[in-house]
């Protein structure tokens, strides 16, 4: 049956205008009436946010120091603007194509190569379109977020279409991970690897094992993908996570640096490298990584004010802090305000760090002025925001002309925050912790975190309490350590205050030591069995 292209919408992403025009002409000859074009990944993301497409043709090589075509798929997936029902075709040399299909959920659906030939293009596209026509009901459920219904449909489709077994199993793996059914996902991916060794299945297996806290087994699965030279961001980031979880930060940093040599324009890799390098006090590496993270995250879902503040923190931590570095720090703090306009927290933190930068360079008058600005901005925050940032606020005011005012403000905020539900729970948790009632304290902190998620101070309280509880043997010990590792990994180390960084490192090292001991015990048990 011949494919009808008259109702199809197509996006072409290519920075070479002549090649773009040629592909557009071929698709027009095939009957495609609606063709949009983009000359960069960021431009394509803008279009994907606004429009839906049936087909997307993306050239892999978009030029030196520019995001490659694979990153469009990765970022569109991370941002949630990629639909499963859209067919992504990567335009790449045939010998390189096999290295670009390692990701579980961010790989292209098929590939074509230049020079274009209408007959070859039509054959490749129509083959995948016929497959996707069968899978459309399943993919529409996934696009609508109806994952449980999609999971049930996977079972029915696998029986009705045995020839599409691998396609369906891949979608099933994605769904299981989204639903948090990690044990089922491990079983699925192990079965796929045993039947037909697929890099995306090994990545899925490694991710599932990481979620379960089986880091050594995850490492084996992910290392195999990298050894096969696949360009898979997930394989590198999750493998680095296994090393970090076990306290081997140096190995994790080395791994991420190798990954960045292959894909330097991935902001996620740069951000993780910056955080780990900071934890290892490799400040030059951290500075370069955060600079690159800022550069490549612009206009994407990875853009974060934390990258700017982490860059400044890394600059402040360096042994040498001359006028040039001071100017670089202040410029970054000005840039973050421009990048996130109208956000009071960003403005406050920018002035707070500016005061620290000026103090570091010995410019006391400027430091006092910036501190006063930060104090005024802090006073204008909502009570919840004040309570969240009161500790870094006071730390940043130390040694300035408004330090005594800041101390009085802290006392007032502490009194007022007792009226907030999460503040009350946090206080109850700290009182229970002091009495060594760790299980009770953990309950308070978990409830507080549910109300105010992603607050560093609260998260560190939760982790510290959970580690105390995990000292006692029992069936919950593994789960507690896994939750601690996940909580610590979610924190961007560079964006913490100096006291928070010190506390973070202490808790991180302690968590890693406990995880290593547990992993070693499991290994010895398995060998004995």
Automatic annotation (TrEMBL):
It holds the Pfam family TPR_8. InterPro entries: CheY-like_superfamily (IPR011006), Sig_transdc_resp-reg_receiver (IPR001789), TPR-like_helical_dom_sf (IPR011990), TPR_rpt (IPR019734). SUPFAM superfamilies: CheY-like, TPR-like. One of its GO terms (biological process) is phosphorelay signal transduction system. Residues 9-129 form the Response regulatory domain. PROSITE patterns: RESPONSE_REGULATORY. This is Two-component system response regulator.
